[in-house]
Specification:
Helices cover 39% and strands 29% of the residues. The chain is an alpha+beta fold and 142 residues long. It has a single domain, classed as Gcn5-related N-acetyltransferase (GNAT) (Aminopeptidase). It has a 7-stranded mixed beta sheet, sandwiched between helices. The model has no long low-confidence stretch (mean pLDDT 91). GO terms for molecular function: acyltransferase activity, transferring groups other than amino-acyl groups. This is Acetyltransferase. Keywords: Transferase. It comes from Microvirga lotononidis.
Length: 142
Amino acid sequence: MHARPYTEADFDALFSVYTRAMGRVIEANFGWDEGFQRLNLARTCLEHRTTVYSLVSPFDGFSIIKEADDALILFLLCVDPQAQHQKIGTTAIEQMKREAAETGRRLTGTVLPGNDVGSFYTGLGFNIRFDQSGKRVLLYNA
């Protein structure tokens, strides 16, 4: 798998993967407003570390990491449904775990209700807890 930094030229491909991978979950939780989703995702990609992954095609997925002093916060990991089950997400998470260990930080994130990825994360060593609002919180202690 090849990983590279996101550029603004990637946005249309990134948004297409986001829509296919997360559209149903976003719609169920918040409702889907195309304009809002585009603006919010574009802003988030520029404000935080966004990485593009390719294996099967030039744009198979991406991740967005927010950095804190004590943690790497996995904001979003999306793999195109057509490229899933090719170890793209697993390889990306393993790279994040190594970075967390090397920098002495935790790797954490949340999972939206209806996004059935709990077994993916627990299989990679994450503990899953529920916060006060009922969101599933991921925690990996490096």
